[in-house]
């Protein structure tokens, strides 16, 4: 994999998502998650992220949970000095699609990633009932 996936989230959402993904796709590499904890200031979180990525030589694709939140703003701040692609709206299908894209050497394609994520958001009850009749 030519990229590193960096997950920045509020609370332990990112760590929990990775544990869930591991149940589905198995072990993975070149992925890290950093949590913004309630006791972290914006600057303390920024420093945690800087420390984490300081040894990463690969280009980074960053998944964040919420546009405009501190994790997203931190990623934007880091992208001023480093090649970082940022996509918000993190969920499990998004992570799995991105990991598959990068593992299969297809490279990062934000449009495909976002389309896959959108395709996995639907009303299950309506779809199930519509197909039942």
Q: Write down the overall mean pLDDT.
A: 92
Strand order of the largest sheet: 2-1-3-4
Number of DSSP helices?
A: 6
Q: Could you please say which CATH topology applies here?
A: Rossmann fold
Unreliable runs, pLDDT <50, ≥5 residues? none
Q: Work out the radius of gyration.
A: 16 Å
Q: Quick one: biggest sheet?
A: 4 strands, parallel
- The tally of strands reads 4
DSSP strand (E) fraction?
Answer: 15-25%
Q: What would CATH call the homologous superfamily?
A: Phosphotransferase system, mannose-type IIA component
Architecture, according to CATH?
3-Layer(aba) Sandwich
Task: Write up this protein.
With 133 residues, the protein is α/β, with parallel strands linked by helices. It is 49% helix and 19% strand. It contains 6 helices and 4 strands, in the order βαβαβαβααα. The protein has helices at residues 13-25, 42-53, 70-78, 92-103, 110-119, 124-132; strands spanning 3-10, 31-36, 59-64, 84-88. The protein has a 4-stranded parallel beta sheet with strand order 2-1-3-4, sandwiched between helices. β1 (3-10), α1 and β2 (31-36) form a beta-alpha-beta unit. The longest helix has 13 residues, at 13-25. The termini are far apart. The model has no long low-confidence stretch (mean pLDDT 92).
List the helices and strands and how they pair.
Elements: E1 3-10, H1 13-25, E2 31-36, H2 42-53, E3 59-64, H3 70-78, E4 84-88, H4 92-103, H5 110-119, H6 124-132
Parallel strand pairs: 1-2, 1-3, 3-4
Keywords:
four-stranded parallel sheet; alpha/beta; 6 helices; Rossmann fold; 133 residues
């Amino acid at each position: 994999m030519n990229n590193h996936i960096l997950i920045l989230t509020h609370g332990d959402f990112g760590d929990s998502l990775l544990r869930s993904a591991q149940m589905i796709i198995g072990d993975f590499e070149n992925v890290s998650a950093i949590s913004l904890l309630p006791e972290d200031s914006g600057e303390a979180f920024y420093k945690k992220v800087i420390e984490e990525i300081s040894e990463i030589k690969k280009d980074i694709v960053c998944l964040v949970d919420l546009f405009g939140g501190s994790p997203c703003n931190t990623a934007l701040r880091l992208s001023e000095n480093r090649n970082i692609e940022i996509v918000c709206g993190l969920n499990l299908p998004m992570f799995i699609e991105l990991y598959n894209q990068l593992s299969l050497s297809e490279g990062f394609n934000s449009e495909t990633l976002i389309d896959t994520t959108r395709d996995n958001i639907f009303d299950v009850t309506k779809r199930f009932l519509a197909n039942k009749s």
